[in-house]
Fold these 3 entries.
Entry 1:
Amino acid sequence: MQGNVACAEGALAAGCSFFGGYPITPSTEVAEHMAQRLPRKGGTFIQMEDEIASIAAVIGAAWTGARAMTATSGPGFSLMMENIGFAVMTETPCVIVNIQRGGPSTGQPTMSAQADMMQCRFGSHGDYSIIALSPASVQEMYELTAAAFNLADRFRVPVFLMADEIIGHMRERIEIPDSVPKVERKLLKQGVLPFHPDDDLVPGFPQFGKGYGVHVTGLTHDERGYPCATNPRVHEQLVRRLVEKVEGKRHEIADYRVTNPDAELVFITYGSPARTVEQVVHDNPGKEIGHLRFRTVWPFSENALREFPNARAFLVPEQNLGQMAREIERHTSVPVIRLPRFGGALHTPGELVAALEGLK
Amino acid sequence: MTFTDWLRADRLPHIYCAGCGNGTVINCTLNAVDQMGWKKEETVFVSGIGCSSRAPGYIVTDSLHTTHGRALAFATGIKMANPALNIVVFTGDGDLAAIGGNHFIHACRRNIDLTVVCMNNMIYGMTGGQGSPTTPPGALSTTTPYGSEEPAFDLCELAAAAGANYAARWTSYHVKELTHAVLAGLRTPGFSFIEALVQCPTNYGRRNKFRQPLDQVEYFKTHGMLVEKVRRLHEEGREIPPDTIVLGELARRNRPAMGVKR
């Protein structure tokens, strides 16, 4: 199965019933597969006029209670930024798939990249936090897409599947489970203000059409949902909660894989560079080469770095100039070695071995 | 029920300026919605950004106050995901025809079952009076200090050409006719577009020789002409004054529509 098709199948398994999208290489197969499969499952596929409208329709659908998703790549991702901020501010659960390609601008439509990792985290204006997952196999395209819906519903945030062209277009054999775990979206209890958070800092969801009579606005709002855009205290409380409900749970949300925790030289990866590192580790049996692979990229869990107490260097192969390497540097005194390889070519095992040799 | 039962009393007073025409349009729209006998829990108001788009915040139903220009795209998602919901979109000339122009023509093309009420004040009111796509040629605004040099959009023609099932234009003077037009729009399956010209004394009127709010309302009254009369004059080869505001139903048809309640 192709990675993009596995993504669509993972979404369907998770109960996704709405897809709004716009064709863009290298993500289009996700939309095509949804166009074929969703109507027959009683869901809705709609091709919108652009990516701004796609994410808008997804957010609208989410307010009717649907599990809703879109898929895109660089230029479309850029267009979505304003409405992603709207989803954050209105606490709308939704899933956004980015099959990353080379940028800036039109860049390399058919070539792989991981250069939108910071845009995904910070691309919309204002302070906020989101959740982003990064699959490194076709199996994970399926699993992590399904998981993304659960995280979106639990935390009421946009959740990103930050894949890359290599994983999206890769074909691998996968195992499809009979069912995937499902977290129900917590509905608002009667008598509670619509934006009054529970202990987990997440308010219950006042789904449209259920009689809540909720006003949902991208303006700074109080717990009634009413605009309150000039009160510094209300704004600060709201933004702090929107960030804290995610960042405060970052170690719980964390999802990573550890290989050879006693190693001194440790590769840190997410997405397709993990595959090259796995080859290097496979070719060099023993415990000398460590590998930390993030499946959840944002929020960043610094605890993952502590899994390698003997680390002398963290080597970070990425398909960008070192976006996550910068984040890793913020959390450790261990030297972080950037190993950028972009333009569409993936690191070769030889390159990574050479990087190790230079540190021995 | 009456239209006041649809208002969110604890949100009043509203933010509109003294003399603004938007309140009239909200009243007419709620009157029409009330006459439909819809249940509040089955009705959703959606809007973008601008003075017009603050309206859903004063209405008791579920409502989505979205980003600038994108109300129709959000509304499309709501309607396609749950066609059982009745959806009314409030928008303005800048929101709909400038930043949201693409979504407007595509929502018309899809002929999706929404009713869109556009409060056309021919200006960006919220931001202090800049020229919009419907600012008439020659009109003064903060960004057209020497008079607008651009032609204005005819929003109803645009809606009709793009495929909407219903398009009508009235003004804040014609409250009965406007209410009837909204009602006709609500009853029409598919995309219904109602343009309501409104006075903006704060940012349009005072720069364009309408010193009092009612001066502009008076202008709507004296310069409005029914579309039937306009067509008749045209057929008879008689002159139609260039500043005529064409009023009435400009499109009504029954093309296949999307998102209609099953």
Note: The first strand of chain A starts at residue 16 and ends at 21.
Entry 2:
Amino acid sequence: MFRLEARTSTPAWFNLALPLLAIGATLILCSGLIALAGAGVVEAYGVMFSASLGDSYAITETLVRAAPMIFTGLAVAVAFRAKFWNIGAEGQLLAGAVASCAVGAIPMPGPLAMLLMALAGAAAGAAVALIPATLRVKFRVDDVVSSLLLNSVFFYALMALIEGPWKDSFSGYPISPPIEDTANFPVLLEGTRLHLGVVAALVAAPVIWFVVARTTLGFRIRVTGENPEAARYGGINVERVLISTALLSGALAGLAGVGEVGGVHFQVMSDISPGYGYSGIVVAMLARLNPLGVVPAAIFLAAVMTGAEAMSRATGVPAFLSDVIQGTALLAMLAALLFTAYRIRRVGATK
Amino acid sequence: MSVVLEQIFQVGFLAAIIRIATPLAFATLGEMFSERAGVLNLGIEGIMLLSAMTGFTAASLSGSLWLGVLAAVLTGALMGAVHALFTVALGLSQHVCGIGVTLFSSGLAYFLYRLIFGQQSVPPNIKGFETLPIPILSDIPVLGPAVFNQFSLVYMAMLAIPLAAFVLYRTPWGLAVRMVGENPRAADSAGVSVIATRFQAVILGGALMGLAGAFLSMAQFNAFTFGVVSGRGWVAIALVVFGRWDPWRSAGAALLFAFVDALQLRMQASGLGHIPYEAFLMLPFIFTIVAMAVMSRNAVAPSALLKPFRREER
Amino acid sequence: MSTPAPLIEMRGISKSFGAVKANEAVDLSVAPGEILGLLGENGAGKTTLMNVLFGAYAPDAGEILVQGRSVAINSSADALAAGIGMVHQHFHLAPRLSVLENLLIGIPGRSGRIDRAGGLARLAEIGRQHGLTLDPDLPVSALSVGEQQRLEIVKALFRGARLLILDEPTAVLAPTEVDGLFSALRSMAAQGLGIIFISHKLNEVRALTHRCVVLRHGRVAGRVDAPASTTSSEMARLMCGHEIVPPARGPSMPGAAVLTLDGISTSHHSGMALRDVSLSVRGGEILGIAGVSGNGQRALAEVISGVRAPDAGKMTIAGKTVSRFSPSTVQALGLGRIPEDRMTTGLVTNLPLADSMVLPRIGTAAFSRNGLIKPDAIRAFAEAQIKAYDIRCPGPMTRAGALSGGNLQKALLARELAFDPKVLIVSQPTRGLDIGAARFIHEKFLDMRAKGCSIIVIGEDLEELLMLSDRIAVMYEGRIVGTLDSADASIARLGLMMTGAEGHA
């Protein structure tokens, strides 16, 4: 007979072991789908790996894809730490993209344009995140539901914009006019798409780690998330912490949109985000809400996405496998978290 | 204003409201059962999508619409069981598990659909449900053709509402569901299995979400597209709050939402100025958010919602 | 007294939680018509033993016999089927459902529907038999605490219980309500039911029970066959293993008033509101607040801690009027607080203990500067307090939730006392603690009093209040009905005032 027993502490190596365990379980589970599609499992995963991490160009492509998910992953990690259930990173990303695109279209010196794009995008994302936070604080509206619904609102708002006022009058496609060439983020490696925004994302992770671990705001976020009542009695203004968290989280998600506009697409279109906001939830959970863990987790998901397209071309397995892997990884990671709270103990039969 | 009023009392408009409300009513009732037992199911969006896909596929391959409905219901129930496994049996975060179920189900729906039907320029469709006029009742002026000349799934939704109310308020199982959602310890000490009751409620809820998905792909659109659900599941979660976790009020909330949605569709069709139609698509979602802001102060959720239950705790 | 076959017999029951032996080789039996007292200090293992009998915990060893036959009780459903009913300390009721619905939960219906008619008939029958009447359609939230307890008893009888376990049933009742409960229990016993009455109040056990079993550290410390003719001190010795010597209390030397409440009223937000409450505590004085739970004590603690702003009235701390009610403002004025509910309003169980220990003062220069926390200072502070208060834990980075109740209470005390509060407000300071830990807490309070600190102790345990306090104020329905010098106070007099009778200051 086995029994679950509560743990008093978890060893540090769990932080690495659990995500790896979850990812391993996910790849094994999803191999069933590859087999179902009639392809060789080893071959399919092999193509996925070589196309995403197999050579330096592939690695740069994966990093470019990881950048927005690092930002949304950080956004979700910060929010979930405070138990502000921000499922709205997707809408915040779109708002950030639109705002930075609008700024980037104004002629001005390049560095200034990039700075203003980042500021505008972060501000737009923060403003969007402020809506569910305010609704929760002032009207007791569940933040999950409102932030989810806002994703739809902002998606349609973006569509209305590029179908309406921003529509490219020349081509007639629902695409916004491009930003100024001078506002394009510089490419760091000749012949790749590795742009400045990727570096910004890699720098953001340790910065956010510092904020959470070493500042009084971070302390308040952690305490409020774990026990809002104790926080309130301890003199913390819980409402203010939630609003601050929302602003920080939304700004990070907005920056994800800025990077996509300034470094990848240089304009706004309907599919500017293939669900990076939702992927951020998977990333944050795989990272166990640790900002430093967000980077490898985002790179993993990015590799899966980049690799899945190549795998689809090579083996005919639908590229949607990457979506299944994301969902499975999230559920597997949750199940793995049980090991942090419990240990499995063998108990002898009662004598 | 008078133009709007005229529109409202058209048979077509009333019929549209009922049609739009039907999948929402199923989904809302499904979410309500789950939440009444203390389990938030954010998997609803993905469960509806996957059910819409399996229902469509089963109907398309077998040629039987009802077999499709059955497949959708079973899919919903199965995914409900998955959500219950994580949240009820393992006691994990209901928020994150729900998102996980939605991501997993949507991914699986896309994957399997592409695997079965391949990439086609024109998405395959089926001959969906046809309207089934009810004798005599459908002859009532205005109301008759709007309400009683509908798909059989619409009539099922109409019956599901009183049935849900009966089950919830008048049967021992319904009492157990309400009790495990309010005070699981009380149910446990009265000899009711909290785990089993929650599992049943979440699975029943999933089955109803499956019906909602079936309606979308087999009666409303007669095809499966990636946007077939497009936020209706999230809306249903809001409608449960708006309907204060009561079957009748929840159904009323679904009708109200459907009214706004139908109005929005009319506004699109009327081509108001040069406003892109997507601007109107935002309206029902904004309406829902505003309605929640107005209602949430007085809405009291089941006390044990989001709280996992474990027996031997110390 | 002839001994009929026991209704229930527990043989050699042992149960451990990790390293803690909650029960060890406990034997116990109850005969039909018998009221058995189960006596013991907090943490002696009474509740665990009864949870084993009711199927909530599986025993590690031992067996349970129902009317001579060995039965396995693995769930409350098994216990109910064996005719065992339990009234828990914290009621197992759903406040938003009706009385009848709370009774009918788990009862099979009639042709698929809830058997309302059958339920009403059974409720009426129980009402006739035992004098326990209730309005079936009222929501439970509309019942008084005494009525809710009655509902719990009816619920057990409804299911055909022949043995009724009551866990500290008098803790939530006013003295007059206690009399009503006792006469109902006597009538049930007279009709052949067996009753196990759990308590740590000696006078109640002596007044009600036929026989009693005393637990200490999880073992049976003694059995008393005639409680009525056994002295309280004999029973106390069995309970504690030694004579209870109250900690020495120095002479009362109160200084100037430090905390003053003047005409404080609150809205009926949640629970009982305060109505025109005025009180003052002087330096070096302990003021006890007595009252049946739910008479405004929580609102009083919330106002003083700054969590809730009053609608009317004035509060001053050390001569300064509190203009904005928030926990941080009253803390800045010198208020410390030990909450009633350590786990929910005191500590953050999932974070390191050190975080909880600096929580109220994270913004001060001691633990942060320019918005950056000082991890080393936080750790050093926690380590020093762990040492000073002998808090048993692996270290300051241990999850707070892993500590025992007594150690958590010490940690909270350390956190508040480290900054020499001028006023300390504490609620139920020793509830759930073992004798050693309780004694430690009491001594700390008396030390603080000697140093000139003003302390308000809100409690339900009158003996504890009498031992600690210089004066005792009694609350009833949101008002203070009177304040007594503890020299003039007695349990009987306080008990009378707790029912609303005016006292004389």
Note: The domain at 7-295 of chain B is CATH 1.10.3470.10 (ABC transporter involved in vitamin B12 uptake, BtuC).
Entry 3:
Amino acid sequence: MSPPRFRLNGCDRALSGSPDRSLLDILREDHGLMAAKPGCRIGRCGACTVLMEGRPVTACLVMGYRLEGAEILTADCAEAGPEVAVVRAALIDENAFQCGYCASGFVLALASLLGRAPEADEAEIRAALSGNLCRCTGYASILRAALTAQDRLRAARGSAGAARPHATRPG
Amino acid sequence: MGSGHEGVARPGMSGPSLRVLRPHDSGEALAALLRHGAAARLAAGATALQLDWAAGASRPDLLVDLSALPELRGIDAAGGSLRIGAATPLAEIEASPAVARAAPLLCRAVQTVAAPAVRMLASLGGNVAGRAGCCLPALLALDASLDLLSEAGRRRVALADWLSRAPDPASLILAITVPAQPEGAPATLRKVGLRAAFSPSVVGVAGLLHLDRGVIAAARLAAGGGPVRPQRLLRSEAILAGLPPEAVDWVGLHAALLAEIEAPDDGLRSAGYRRRVAANALVAGLGGAGLLPGGRSPARHRPVGGCAPAGERTVSRAADPAGWHRRPDIADKVFGRLAYLTDARMPGLLVGRILRAGRPHARILAIDTAEAEALPGVAAVVTHRDVPGLNAFGIMVQDQPALCGERVRYVGDAVAAVAAVDEATAEAALALIRVAYAPLPVLDTPEAALAPGAAQLHPDGNLRREVRVTRGDAAAAFATCAHVVEDTYVTPRQMHGFLETEGGWARVEADGSLTIHAGGQHGARDRHQIARLLGWPEARIRVVTSPTGGAFGGKDELTVQPVLALLAVKTGRPVRLHLGRAESVAAGVKRNPMRIRMRTGCDAEGRLLAVSVELTADGGAYASLSPAVIETALEHCCGPYIVPHVEGVARLVATNNGTCGAFRGFGANEMTFAIECQMGRLAQAVGCDPVALRRRNLRAPGSPGFFGQAVGPSERLAAMLDAAAASPLWSAGPEPAEAAIGVGLALNYQGNGLGSLPEDRAAMELRLAADGAIEALYGLDEIGQGVQAAIRSAVATRLGIDRSEIRPVTGDTGRCPDSGSTTASRGTFVVWEGVRRAGPAFARALLDAAGRRLGRRPGDLALGPGGIREARSNSGRPLLTFAALASGLAPEALPRAGAAFAFPKTDYTAGNARYLFASGATLARVAVDRVTGEVRVLDLHQHTAAGPVLDAAAYLGQIEGGGVQGVGFTLTEDARMQGGRYLASNLDGYLMPTIADAPERSRVLALEELDPGDPYGPRGVGELGIGAVTPAIAAAVADATGHWPSVAPFSPETLLRALAAGGAA
């Protein structure tokens, strides 16, 4: 039987090793992808957040056997979609991180939220990011960046809509 | 075995292997369960299972993975009720329109489970099967039932019945069926946790009233979650049946609920609290909110307004876009490509692991490493026998063995370490090291350690340090006071909680020198300590400490460096070592838990007459910086106030608890909690507002400091009080029904630098690099605080060049001069002062070199963005770029200039006293929940005066981040210990604030102006942000409830009682 495969940052990858190895270890030790960080290894800090089928999961809680056929995107990926790009730019403009160890997790959790719920209000943004701990910033800078990213995505959608003559836009 | 896909796990070189079965249908899953019995475990998301494993549970032989079984997945809304496959992830349920429509209670319950990323994996079946899940109260209120499969076949059982019977291990849950929630039926749901989100459950409740023609036809009330057994509350339900909702006797229902709900104590919350909160939540949620206690302080004295100080400005990107600069490291961090020292990987890199004592106090009888050394793949095992130099470290006192040989004094003591080819082998080797211990009595409180006859943990005794201060005659002065307040303030064993745990790598270089890359806060001192351990000259060791993923004082002392050094030297190969969180919790230093008994008296007009303070700090097993912490605490015992009579004593006691040491605030914030609460209480006693009382006692600028020492210029305490008085928070917002609102104020006055006694020097260097960059070399560490941004700002301003032309080089003893420690709010001043001193000489050197190149007189040239310019020209282009200048110069001819200087010190040397201070006023507006007594910070305004802001983003980040660390200290954080062991080993039990716990709104304001002639420039703000948060929140809580909380983290239980009693608790 051929080894199980999964998609990692757009490439086909074979899985090897024990089925209970964590995706976090697979990323860091097998593939040299270091953006996902080990902060607790029990899903309580969010520093190892990656996207699985487009939705944030903590890589430390995903055991290898769950990966068969899965689509994984990590924050190492430079081109990770329009939301990720806008979220990154906003986080950079806001200087939203200090030590930065939690940054990758926030990038993906926030980008995923704004992709799914572009009009999320502040309470929803907080709820969506509540699994990502940051010990340095006190979160205010991350929230500001989230709102900035949301505004920019909204503006981009607006201008994209305006460019299409028949697009309908909410008043 | 069936035809399902199987894989085999082999953790380590030995031990049992774990197989995973991915069955094709539920029958195959059941068959596996029947065949393997207790050796098999069902899992869908496996999230709870992995928590159990992390907590020490052994892995099963066989994991039966249900996550991909189609018949266990999905939501079927046909026929009015919902049928939810047991393996359906919670995130799918939460997002399902069908669930939102038919069972909004369940939708809300699901959202209270863990966090979104965990809910992607965790399933509803798993939440039910564990019998402790947060969805159970809602499912009980909805009268859910379970579809089960066992050898007897399929059957449907009411959830309530299933819960009332013992678990049947030979069955599996196929689906959960939930009858539709009647539209418009009164319903409520509440999960109470230990923090605002992603929390273990304290108690959860759900209630649903079925109405029929205006009367309650049926009521279903339920409680459960976490330690609370899931339960229907039938007797209470009976009270409601048959009544119109408006006729419900809420008082009677509340009493019935209190009598009926069963709940346990667990040391975090009492059974009585859980019952009361559950009853409150059900009654309030179903319509009886009016019953909740009002709670309001009898008299609120608010400042009468005033003018904010001229020149105070909001620090934010929006307020000053032109003054907002990108951090040099921010893009790499956001793109996930910054290489932390624990991320290093290279061919041949060994993996190190440390064997910890795992017991609080024992004599070591024998250590046998033979088996571990014989394990294939093990490169080296080290013990105390491998320490060639002094087997002891400690910044102040060298009392902590790098590897213990005779005795262990706390759970985190290192006993041996291994280096192996991979993680699994290293772990297996650790298990093969045999250590024989003879237990010794455990001293788990300062009282036990000071009791007569207690075992002595160190030759100098268990009282590691006692510091006293006496001024005037406090005892006599108290007799003349019109008002005296006294309380004992208790502060938590706060954990630094840096996201990057301690770690790094080391190797012996080709020239025989040793390089250690490990997060830290003072590479030169780390090098000094490592050299002493190895018996090597310091010059043979290089320590790299930047970048570090957070420190906050917790990486000031050595962490993994001794073991890294020993393993690298013994193996001759590169070794990495990165502590897991549980090991970090066990081994890392913490904030000293303190008990501060304080008595404060004033005359009838509120003028302070006397302060008496007695502080006892738990130091844990080793000294580290704790002696200095208690000294700093005592130095701040009168805050910024004039007190004629003072008697104070601070004691540091060694125990077998976790070692304590430096943590942001360094004793000052703990003491500020005490003195500022005392000031607030005296204001109440005198009958004046909190600003007025403080103003009456404020020290005059330029007057002698607490010890009578000379202090530096530019005190801004009065201005901070003006800002506080003018704060819009005093009159903000209406009072909602569900919470009591209060506003509180506290001042702080934070010393900068190490003080008058320790050596506190700094050196730095500026140079033109071969590529044309202006390098600024400082031995300070980039721990996230933004020292690199501060360096760019200071150098750019001084030299008149662009920030982007400056390359900060930090945290590397091989490249940077020793700038002293990255602690004590000293880095900002060091950066600024260094370039103030070295800048002019460096500029001259650049202009001289450029003059030679261009054949011009240096005096006709000037520095500007891009390079060397015509001195008297305003036009843009430089005559010579820095790169062009550098390219024509031999390496030794590249211009450079350095500076070495002492941090400003005061003249006082009878004790450790500070010279430079930064001031602040913190205002908090809080909501105290009438259902739970929980405190939520609505607004946190931090007024600061710390001289010119070097870098707005770094300044803002330090104050905001310190503020939320203070919120954690105040409301949720405590690394509790019992019998010398930590009760929480990871971030599921140690609860730092999440984004949901952070203040709803925060503001940082800065007053930058210095006194004319003040030569000291910007002060540090690393500690200012945490300094006054706790007393500000305490004052706000007192404003809301009438009760002054004195034990941090504040107990919701106490506050709920206070609300009920109108302030008395």
Note: Residues 140-163 of chain A form the longest helix (24 residues).
